[in-house]
Every structure is written in C-alpha cells, then in structure tokens.
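Hi W., the dioxo(di-mu-sulfide)dimolybdenum complex you wanted:
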Amino acid sequence: MSETTTWTVTGMTCGHCVASVAEEIGELDGVEQVDVVLATGTVTVTSATPLDRERVEAAVTEAGYVLA
Ligand code: 9UX
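Structure:
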C-alpha cells in the first residue's frame, strides 16, 4: 500500500528550485509521485515504501534546500 505524506521545504523561490527538489525526491526508492508546490513551499510524496524523514531530508539537502 502506498502512502502519501506532505513535507514543508524552505528556500524554494522559483520553478528551477521546484524542479531540483522534485528530481532529487523522485530518485528515492519507492517514490511513485512527487508534487512540489512553490506557493505553499510544500512537497507531497506518494511512496510504495515508507519514507522516513532522514531520506527526504537528504534529498532536499542534496537539491540545496532545507526540510522544515
Ligand atoms: Mo534560481 Mo530557484 O537560483 O533558487 S533556482 S531562484
């Protein structure tokens, strides 16, 4: 069963930021869908395997932003 979780990411200010975060999170094992919303600074991820904070934070950090 997939699960969907919404996270808050600070520091994203443009569409390129959004694309970078979406790309990094999309590379995590199990991730099926990623929706990054610039206006709200939120990232909604649907994953087939549980996504712990450490994995999401590593991806966000790799993209150059900060997981709230
Ligand atoms: Mo451009 Mo979005 O530096 O950070 S990619 S504003």
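The longest helix spans residues 15-26.

W.
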